[in-house]
TrEMBL record:
PANTHER family: PERIOSTIN-RELATED, TRANSFORMING GROWTH FACTOR-BETA-INDUCED PROTEIN IG-H3. Plays a role in cell adhesion. May play a role in cell-collagen interactions. Binds to type I, II, and IV collagens. GO terms for molecular function: cell adhesion molecule binding. Keywords: Cell adhesion, Disulfide bond, Extracellular matrix, Gamma-carboxyglutamic acid, Phosphoprotein, Repeat, Secreted, Signal. Its main location: secreted. One of its GO terms (biological process) is cell adhesion. GO terms for cellular component: extracellular matrix; extracellular space. InterPro entries: Adhesion/Biosynth-related, EMI_domain, FAS1_dom_sf, FAS1_domain, TGFBI/POSTN. It comes from Grallaria varia. This is Transforming growth factor-beta-induced protein ig-h3. Residues 91-223, 227-358, 362-485, 489-619 form the FAS1 domain. Residues 33-87 form the EMI domain.
Length: 674
């Protein structure tokens, strides 16, 4: 039984995507009888689709609502008085089958073009038969050209829809070609993961209709022969003049002439004209940026419009991705309906004309990247400070740009200090966040050294943590950060001495002999009690503490951890080991940092050897907290009980201690009597 189940599972897995979707449609339609398939019909049109599970529940195709209808699965028909579609269609020749499956116009034209004897007679053929609606959608001029000229053109057109062997949907492999019966010209097959099969970008509507002399597949378009490569299409289309020059300049001609299955999203001259001339000249004059731009318009596989019934992400030759989708009849790129002309078939793929240029990040300046991101206010700040040249030139830099929320109360005033601070937001060299490591040192254009901190849930540079994926431009990389950077200005002691709020703490550190410790190189996190915190202590307790250097040093060490923890790294509870030995518990509650449940007044005062948090209370180690102090009177009975319990266990192992145990029991009785 397990082997049988495995075999059945492998057989199901081997089904083509089309057959899998058809099977799902059968399952959804089985309540209406045998061989009934559920189909989704796009409201207001005649377009129908076999449904997959996702579409079944969404009830949408290309964002438009659908209705579910039930009809006979391919190859079956109704019987009066019977439920469902119990009868297989009569097996007859291809000519007769065309009339049964909804391609009567193809049947008519095969008669008129003298193809009928061939598809009525012996042989093994496959015909991709345009539906009646497909023929009706042709322009009068096109149709007239087919049926004139003693029907030779019509015969050739029909024979191009035929293959001289029996081909079922399972044989229609993605990216393959079939030699047609017209001069062996190729027919391109694409079989997509969503179950849609296209023939020269025409969608299979009703597939696998068996005939005595072959197979009939009904398609939604009349297909035409294809002899041009993508490169030849570029060379012959009038409105692709700029693209033609760009492809030649970037030496992509050979790629677009080669064998393969590409999708070219071809920018029209109109698309290029929409770009500011300065930007366009910069890209066209930069071979690397130009190549990235063009590769960003080439998808790695051929994607016909009919195959897109929902959004999907596709990879470009540049290595980036584009969101390809649809809205009703329109195709969309990154959510915008910018495809002007679709499904121009080439021998090595398909071309869609687009009326907007898709500029990848790799061809943009830092300024352009920032303007399109959630850091646009930062670019205004850098521009006001006269630093735009660093964001638009060819200098290899990384910009640490605070997100717009940082400036919700307005932009700061630009003065010399602010300009210097902004220079320290520009790091020398073009970096990538995935290569940053803990303890790494970065040099800024303001000649400051910044440290990298890697935490479980965040990546931070000094106090500023990266808030979004970095964007890599032509010469610079953009890091969006969650706050303005505050580069360190001195050691922990230097920072404390420079802030009048910590004068009592500075005196205490000096009195406890810890000054040298907090001046040396290191990685400290200091929870620094303010003057207010010391004043809040009972005077007697404060005096006693200040008069006892050893106890004072012990308390102060409890405020210092030997690792750097910036506020951006605090999400859940973080435990730090203090220099005194006990643990400090740091947490975030209502967007306020707490240490040992005490709120922090100010975070991230950066020092060259650590970070400082201002706290408004003096933290107490566990053993020094008043309720647990060892100098309070002890309960004599409790102390005796503790001793007795311990001696009881020992006396059982050592008979010489039995008298001591007896005396302790006597003392317990005396205390209980008292």
């Amino acid at each position: 039984l397990p082997l049988l189940l495995l075999a059945l599972g492998l057989a199901a897995a081997a089904k083509s995507p089309y057959q899998q979707v058809l099977q799902h449609s059968r399952l959804r339609g089985r309540q209406h009888g045998p061989n009934v398939c559920a189909v989704q019909k796009l409201i207001g049109t005649n377009r129908k689709y076999f449904t997959n599970c996702k579409q079944w529940y969404q009830r949408k195709i290309c964002g438009k609502s659908t209705v579910i209808s039930y009809e006979c699965c391919p190859g079956y028909e109704k019987v009066p008085g019977e439920k469902g579609c119990p009868a297989a269609l009569p097996l007859s020749n291809i000519y007769e089958t065309l009339g049964v499956v909804g391609s009567a116009t193809t049947q008519l034209y095969s008669d008129r073009s003298n193809l009928r004897p061939e598809i009525e007679g012996p042989g093994s053929f496959t015909i991709f038969a345009p539906s009646n609606e497909a023929w009706a959608s042709l322009s009068a001029e096109t149709l007239d050209s087919l049926v004139s000229n003693v029907n030779i053109e019509l015969l050739n057109a029909l024979r191009y829809h035929m293959v001289d062997k029996r081909v079922l949907t399972d044989d229609l492999k993605h990216g393959t070609t079939l030699n047609s019966m017209y001069q062996n010209l190729p027919i391109q097959i694409h079989h997509y993961p969503n179950g849609i099969v296209t023939v020269n970008c025409a969608r299979l509507l009703k597939a696998d209709h068996h005939a005595t002399n072959g197979v009939v597949h009904v398609i939604d378009k009349v297909i035409a022969t294809t002899t041009n490569t993508i490169q030849q299409i570029i060379e012959t289309e009038e409105n692709l003049e700029t693209l033609r020059a760009a492809v030649a300049a970037s030496d992509l001609n050979s790629l677009l002439e080669s064998e393969g299955q590409f999708t070219l999203l071809a920018p029209t001259d109109e698309a290029f004209n929409k770009i500011p001339q300065e930007t366009l000249n910069r890209i066209l004059g930069d071979p690397e940026a130009l190549k990235d731009l063009l590769n960003h318009h080439i998808l790695k596989s051929a994607m016909c419009a009919e195959a897109i019934i929902a959004g999907l992400t596709m990879e470009t030759l540049e290595g980036t991705t584009l969101d390809v989708g649809c809205s009703g009849e329109e195709l969309t790129l990154n959510g915008k309906p910018i495809i002007a002309n679709k499904d121009i078939l080439a021998t090595n793929g398909v071309v869609h004309f687009v009326n907007e240029l898709l500029i990848p990040d790799s061809a943009k300046t830092l300024f352009e990247l920032a303007q399109e991101s959630e850091v646009s206010k930062s670019t205004d700040l850098f521009r006001q400070a006269g630093l735009s040249s660093h964001l638009t030139g060819s200098e290899r830099v990384t910009l640490l740009a605070p997100v717009n929320d940082v400036f919700k109360d307005g932009l700061p005033v630009i003065d010399s200090n602010m300009r210097n601070l902004l220079l320290n937001h520009i790091v020398k060299d073009q970096l990538s966040s995935k290569y940053l490591y803990h303890g790494q040192k970065l040099q800024t254009l303001g000649d400051k050294e910044l440290r990298v901190f890697v935490y479980r849930n965040n990546l931070c540079i000094e106090n500023a943590c990266i808030a979004a994926h970095d964007k890599r431009g032509r010469f610079g990389t953009l890091f969006s950060v969650d706050k303005m950077l505050t580069p360190p200005t001195g050691s922990v002691m230097d920072v404390l001495k420079a802030d009048h709020r910590f004068s009592t703490l500075v005196a205490a550190i000096q009195s406890a002999g810890l000054t040298e410790n907090l001046n040396r190189p290191g990685t400290f996190t200091v929870f620094a009690p303010t003057n207010e915190a010391f004043r809040a202590m009972p005077q007697g307790e404060l005096n006693k503490l200040m008069g006892n250097a050893k106890e004072l040093a012990n308390i102060l060490k409890f405020h210092v951890a030997d690792e750097i923890l910036v506020s951006g790294a605090v999400n859940a509870l973080v435990r730090l080991k203090s220099m005194q030995g006990d643990k400090l518990e740091v947490s975030m509650k209502n967007n306020v940092i707490h240490v040992n449940k005490e709120p922090v007044a100010e975070s991230d005062l950066m020092a060259t050897n650590g970070v400082i948090y201002a706290v408004k209370s003096v933290l107490q180690p566990q053993a020094s907290r008043p309720q647990e102090r060892g100098d309070e009177p002890a309960d004599p009975a409790l102390e005796i009980f503790k001793q007795a319990s311990a001696l009881s266990k020992v006396s059982q192992r050592n008979p010489r201690l039995a008298p001591v145990y007896s005396r302790l029991l006597a003392r317990m009785k005396e205390n209980s009597g008292a």
